[in-house]
Amino acid sequence: MISRMSSHRSANAEFLARSLAAVWHPCSQMKHYETFPLVPIARGSGVWLYDFEEKRYLDAVSSWWVNLFGHCNPRINAALRDQLEKLEHVLLAGFTHEPAVQLSERLAALAPPGLGHCFYASDGASATEIALKMSAHHWRNSGKPDKSRFISLENSYHGETLGALSVTDVALFRSAYGALIRQQATVPSPDWRKAAAGESAEAYALRCADMLERHFQQHHSKLAAFIIEPLVQGATGMAMYHPVYLRRARQLCDEYGVHLIADEIAVGMGRTGTLFACEQASAPLTPASGIGEKITGITPDFLCLSKGITGGYLPLSVVMTRDEVYQGFYSDEAARGFLHSHSYSGNPLACRAALATLDIFQQDDVLAANRAKAAYMNRISRPLREHPAVRNWRNIGMIWGFEVDSPHRDFSQRCFALALKNELLLRPIGNTIYFMPPYVISNEEMDLLVSRTLHIINQLS
Ligand SMILES: Cc1ncc(COP(=O)(O)O)c(C=O)c1O
């Protein structure tokens, strides 16, 4: 990187050199920054990020799926300024504060019914850790200490701390960190791209649910919980599946006495078109089911939220759970209580950002506005969808994904670099391009996103 710089260093280059010398970046082989650019960002506004020379990038991935209402949103900024003048932080053990209480009350009113207890942490992986620990500890408190195993879907992603990695199915992580973790089993993913020829997404999801049942039949006495990314497995490349799987999973968990953990860290807060993806869990529509009307919605035993919960402003996560689970810990004995804490659990500023985010959902009828945006996007993206190199076009809510047939083995890096040249921030996963833009994206910005992506695909296919 440094060798490519001219003697007169630009503002960007100066900054990059400092960053590369001092910052160890996440999810990165640092040496790759010698050939592929690290992008310096000086400021953000709406869907746009700007470097130190005012070159702009449309943030089509919402900065790792966190930003909902644009960068430097005036309403969230104002709420944070107000909170800063009142209380920046206080520990949540033995103390309480207005933003945490209000947020817990409002989330309980919005989430699937019955999830009345909020446990806070700072990031997504911590929420996964909490849900896993809470589930196993609940079984222990119920006199079933052997129920301490977990299962997840093939290709699942639930975070990168050691407990979260144990239910994350990424080959690279398994080989690097396998020795450190108690690896848990996986069951086949209902990802519809894996359906047999001629098999519908629904039929395939039901077939996968049968395989889940077989696993439960054999292992339920040792199983604490089944953890799942509802509707979309994000990190594996926006794999989508039929919502009937969620309903069957709920039924099977009830039948076999296994907790269901819904990891909505990525898909919660409106991403899939409903505030929570679990709201879309549907019953089979086959005549044999005897159900004429679509029944939707399930309540998991644990609901994990993070990412968009603060509108992409501050680290915050929450695990919501049912009264029955909560009561299992309620006791005179300290050891029966839930043993988990983080210094910044329920930070007031982060909770206040989350409250401002919920206000925007309510005041702007965001879910309805997003339906119109998604319809527009689906209309204008036809040339992309019908491009000969594009396969498996898929969309749910404000998430789009597709694979690109390309002769380039390093497609994702090339695509990333070419996108930057075209004012787009895309982060392909292998050959999968996805869009997960902030909800404030305008029609003109969607036009630009589609036309520039088409241009990129034409060059790389
Ligand atoms: C479904 C899911 N769970 C958990 C996580 C981990 O969240 P964090 O990166 O905040 O630790 C992610 C992050 O992408 C995720 O997509």
Structure explained in plain terms:
- By secondary structure, this protein is an alpha/beta fold.
- It has two domains: 41-72 and 365-460, Aspartate Aminotransferase, domain 1 (Alpha-Beta Complex), CATH 3.90.1150; 75-363, Aspartate Aminotransferase, domain 2.
- The protein is 37% helix and 14% strand.
- It is built from 15 helices and 16 strands.
- The protein has helices at 11-22, 62-65, 74-84, 98-110, 124-141, 162-165, 171-177, 201-219, 244-256, 323-327, 348-363, 366-380, 382-385, 411-421, 443-460; strands spanning 43-45, 48-50, 56-59, 117-121, 149-153, 185-187, 223-228, 232-233, 239-240, 259-263, 302-305, 317-321, 390-396, 399-404, 424-425, 432-435.
- The strands form four sheets. It has a seven-stranded mixed beta sheet, sandwiched between helices. A four-stranded mixed beta sheet has the order 1-2-3-15.
- A hairpin with a 2-residue loop joins strand 13 and strand 14 (399-404).
- Helix 4 (98-110) crosses helix 11 (348-363) and helix 14 packs across helix 15.
- The radius of gyration is 22 Å and the shape is globular.
- The chain starts with 10 loop residues before the first helix and ends with a helix.
- The relative contact order is 0.15.
- Mean pLDDT is 95; it is low at 1-7 and 287-292.
- The site of pyridoxal-5'-phosphate (PLP) has 14 residues, from helix 5.
- Residues 123-125, 128, 157-159, 229, 234-235, 263, 265-266, 306 line the site of pyridoxal-5'-phosphate (PLP).
